[in-house]
Amino acid sequence: MSLTSILSAEAIEKAVKDCQAPDTFCYKKFFQLCGLSSKSPKEIKDVFQILDEDNSGFIEESELKYFLQRFVPGARTLTEAETKRFISAADDDSDGRIGMH
């Protein structure tokens, strides 16, 4: 399974282009632009599993740093500040990683 089997390649490209400059990544805007905000819980779980590279059931900070590259190879890495903001917004139990609910 690939991200483009769930999200359109055009929408992914648009979302990644929107946050090309360092410290411009906003996960809410990214999810909206790439179409993830309007996907079903199953589709969101499928995307989560693709992003969870080590299949631990969690997306750790080390995986999140390369978040954009999972959508578009060659995209920039997230800055440390962006990664920390993203994790703190989605980390429900304060364990420093994002779990699938």
Automatic annotation (TrEMBL):
GO terms for molecular function: calcium ion binding. The keyword Metal-binding applies. It comes from the Eukaryota. Signal peptide: none annotated. Residues 39-74 form the EF-hand domain. InterPro entries: EF-hand-dom_pair, EF_Hand_1_Ca_BS, EF_hand_dom, Parvalbumin. Keywords: Calcium, Metal-binding, Muscle protein, Repeat. Ca(2+) 2 binds at D91, D93, D95. PROSITE patterns: EF_HAND_1, EF_HAND_2. SUPFAM superfamilies: EF-hand. Ca(2+) 1 binds at D52, D54, S56, F58, E63. One of its GO terms (cellular component) is cytoplasm. In muscle, parvalbumin is thought to be involved in relaxation after contraction. It binds two calcium ions. PANTHER family: PARVALBUMIN, PARVALBUMIN ALPHA. This is Parvalbumin.
